[in-house]
Amino acid sequence: MSGPTPAGASSVPPSVPAEARRAFGVVLLGVVLYVVLDVVAQLLPPHYSPISQAESDLAVGPYGFVMTINFVNRGLLSLLFLAALARTVASGGGTPARYRSGEVLLAIWGVGALLLAAFPTDVPSTPVSGHGAIHLVVAIVAFLGGAFGTYFLAVGFPDDPRLARTEAFARPLAILSIVLCLLDLGLPFAAPHLAARVGGLTERLFLGSVLLWIFLVALVLARMRGDDRADPPRPDPIPQNLPG
After folding, report:
1. Is the pLDDT of residue 241 over 60?
2. Are 70 and 41 in contact (CB under 8 A)?
3. What residues contact residue 20 under an 8 Å CB cut-off, 6+ apart?
4. Please, how many CA atoms are within 13 Å of residue 86, restricted to the half-sphere of its CB?
5. What is the pLDDT, as a whole number, of residue 93?
6. pTM higher than 0.85, yes or no?
7. CA–CA distance, 149 with 165 (Å, rounded to integer)
8. Mean pLDDT calculated for residue range 146-153
9. Does residue 12 form part of some domain?
10. How far, rounded to the nearest angstrom, does the alpha carbon of residue 78 sit from its chain's CA centroid?
């Protein structure tokens, strides 16, 4: 039999700090803005194909600044998500080192997006330039960081009662991101003709999976207020005066 709970002790998991919840809310807005800007850039001339051409091509052309802004948006929202997540983990008395590898990898994804804004890609049928080569290398490293970063973070989530609420989707979606990332990066070598036809689609599916992962985790934690706690303790019954 278990003994009585010590005075002052509580099995109630800590809530997410208010400043972290606000940061997660900004992250949610950032993801929504990313989708909107991506659609706007896609609809503007020169009307690149979303199925066959990479998303980075949208940053080249008369309206390329829209996609450039979106790269910056993706980098900032990712880094803000990491800062809010680190604040959340620290507030619960957890072990920050448990999430270190995932944080580093996802930070590479975020910083990579900022670098992609600074070094535009080379669209098909144009000579390879210095900035285009840098863009390609950064994209590969950033994509791998995003895919594996979400996975290594998700592996540690069950250790925290608050992050454990994302377990139903966090790890499966992270595994899907890894599969889509490897498909996107490996298809040009395994089936170059197929990659030329659907490379834009596979890339967008991968990018969408990472952003969806960030969005869903941020949504769960942004809604976890101080009174949103599992299994709140019940008050002890008031003893009744018995007749003498």
Report:
1. no
2. yes
3. 84, 85, 87, 88, 91, 221
4. 14
5. 72
6. yes
7. 19
8. 98
9. no
10. 6
CA distance 146 to 102: 9
Q: Per the structure, how many domains does the chain have? A: 1
Q: Is the pLDDT of residue 101 over 60?
A: yes
Listed residue (178, 106, 185, 115) closest to 149, CA to CA: 106
List pLDDT tens digits, range 63-86. 999 999 999 999 999 999 999 999
Residue 162 lies in domain = 18-222
Judge whether 168 and 220 are in contact, CB under 8 Å: no
**For the chain, what percent of residues have pLDDT higher than 70?**
86
CA 243/CA 240 separation, integer angstroms: 10
* Tokens read off for 11: 């099995």
Whether 207 is in a domain gets the answer yes
CB distance 107 to 82 below 8 Å: yes
> Over 60: is that where the pLDDT of 244 sits?
no
Decide: helix, strand or coil at residue 35: helix
Q: Is residue 232 part of a domain?
A: no
Q: How many CA atoms lie within 13 A of 229 on its CB side?
A: 15
Specify the amino acid at residue 40.
V
Provide the pLDDT for residue 170.
Answer: 98
Cβ-Cβ contacts under 8 Å for 110 (sequence gap 6 or more): 74, 75, 76, 78, 79, 82
Angle (nearest 5°) at CA 149 between 144 and 150: 115
Cα 126 from Cα 173, distance rounded (Å): 36
| C-alpha neighbours within 13 Å on the C-beta side of residue 140 | 8
* Residue 47 pLDDT greater than 50, yes or no: yes
Phi, psi values for residue 110, rounded to 5°: -70, -50
State both tokens at 219.
């949504």
In a domain, 13, yes or no: no
